[in-house]
Amino acid sequence: MTTTTSGPPNLQTPGQPPARAQAPAGSVAQPGSEELLYHGPARHGALAWDYLKWVLVSAVGGGLAFGLRQIDFFATWPLWPLSLIGIPGLIWTFFKHATTRYKITLRRIEIEHGVLSKTVDSLELWRVLDVRYNQSLFDRILGVARITVMSTDQSSPELALYGLPNARPLFERLRDAVQLARHTNRPMELVGGDHGALQDVAHHHQ
């Protein structure tokens, strides 16, 4: 979309550098810009259940080792490694968290993830239908929340953003950015196959 604006004639004095237009106070960045809303990892509190799960696995392994040692047949066996059975899971969870990055701008949401190989998933905001905020009692204790993004994307119609810092302000800014993107960028899609009629995607899904 091209926007043409008109204004008073240029009255600058010859020899002076041209004056730069200033954005009005309180103006909102256009949805086509790449202004960052958030860039970074989720909080470790978002993985509390995963960490707890592997700690419990190690505790069960330790209890099993202790119980087997009470049997004469296993009394001399080195069973202590059973108490470390959850350590690989803890390490994997940590590295999975450390290698996942979220980038949210006024145009798109990108999630970079992968421990051994990198994958980047991207979702344009004009494809988003709704944004939802949810925080359970346990989430409130941990200081985290879940932002669910519902879109027209066929592969991932629901995208969960869990444990991002300052989740409530981020949710509100993301919701406003989605509204701007849908009203400013209304791509058209063919309805009824290649020979069908064009239809407004944004209005069709409202």
Q: Helix fraction?
A: 25-40%
| CATH homology group | Pleckstrin-homology domain (PH domain)/Phosphotyrosine-binding domain (PTB)
Q: How many domains make up the 3D coordinates? A: 1
Q: What integer value in Å does the Rg equal?
A: 26 Å
Low-confidence stretches: 1-13, 16-32, 193-198
| CATH topology value | PH-domain like
Q: Shape, please?
A: elongated
- Second rung of CATH, namely the architecture: Roll
- The overall pLDDT average reads 79
- Strand line-up of the largest beta sheet: 1-2-3-4
Number of strands: 9
**Class based on secondary structure composition and strand pairing:** alpha+beta
CATH structural class? Mainly Beta
**What are the secondary-structure elements, in order, as H or E?**
EHHEEEEHEEHEEH
Written overview of the protein:
The chain has 206 residues and is an alpha+beta fold. It has a single domain (37-204), classed as PH-domain like. The protein is built from five helices and nine strands. α1 packs antiparallel against α2. The chain is elongated and about 75 Å long. 13% of the residues are buried.
Which features does this protein show?
206 residues; alpha+beta; PH-domain like; four-stranded antiparallel sheet; elongated; disordered N terminus
Write the layout of secondary structure elements.
Elements: E1 36-40, H1 48-69, H2 87-98, E2 101-105, E3 108-113, E4 119-124, E5 128-134, H3 137-142, E6 146-151, E7 158-162, H4 167-184, E8 188-191, E9 197-200, H5 201-204
Antiparallel strand pairs: 1-2, 2-3, 3-4, 5-6, 6-7, 8-9
Helix pairs in contact: 1-2
